[in-house]
Amino acid sequence: LGHPAPRRVPPPAAGASVRGQCSHVSSRELAMEGTGDEVPPAVAKIQEMQRIAQRYLDKTILWVKVRWGSLAFLLFLYALRVYLKQGFYVVTYGLGIYILNLLINFLSPAVDPDAEDGPVLPTRDGEFRPFTRKLPEFKFWVSACRATLTASFMTLFDVFDLPVFWPILLAYFILLLVLTMKDRVKHMIKHKYIPFSIGKQTYGELTKVKAGGGK
């Protein structure tokens, strides 16, 4: 009896091999992308804490008086600490300059009035025209609170207590305050606007629900 002839195995189709290679490459790319998008646990924890803090900050938007009262209290505590320590005048000067810069941006319009397509700014004619600020009120408050807390933290270290003649810093700060506010007032007079939204009509009396059948 002769030996049986060997069975020939047909070669795989070209499409199947290409599909296999593509699936292998795609799975490898997905694995690489998965490892590249992973965030370290410490960074993820910091991001989660930032989201929680931002959520609580957003809840204070409507509490305008409470927010600014808390800022005034923080500034009072900082001034008291500087007075008791009799130092950190450079830190205080930097805090004052930063808050002054925030105030100027708060009083400035978001769009330059000299631009042709700029919005109409509110005037004193009684018509309601919203004033769009360069720095919104809430961001102004948040930045001022952060700066005050940072300055208070810096007073814990003597390395920031630089020797300086503080009356010179005070005089220079007052000069900057007068010059910047004078320039801002001139800008308001030139473009005939005020940095507030005025003339808005309220309908509180119409929306009140009266007890006793509306009598």
Fold topology:
Layout lengths: L13 H23 L4 H18 L5 H22 L3 H19 L29 H18 L11 H26 L12 H4 L8
Helix pairs in contact: 3-5, 4-5, 4-6
Task: Explain the overall architecture.
- The protein is mainly α and 215 residues long.
- Helices cover 60% and strands 0% of the residues.
- It contains seven helices and no strands.
- It has helices at residues 14-36, 41-58, 64-85, 89-107, 137-154, 166-191, 204-207.
- It is flat and about 50 Å long.
- Mean pLDDT is 76; it is low at 14-23, 30-36 and 201-215.
Q: Which structural class do the helices and strands define? A: mainly alpha
**Based on DSSP secondary structure assignment, what is the total number of beta strands?**
0
Number of helical regions: 7
Major sheet attributes: none
Radius of gyration: 32 Å
Distance between the termini: 118 Å
Beta-strand level of the residues, as a percent range? under 5%
- Compressed to H and E, one letter per element, the order equals HHHHHHH
Q: What spatial form do the alpha-carbon principal axes imply?
A: flat
Mean pLDDT: 76
Helical residues, percent: 55-70%
Which residues form runs of ≥5 with pLDDT under 50?
Answer: 14-23, 30-36, 201-215
Q: Tags for this entry?
A:
215 residues, 60% helix, flat, disordered C terminus
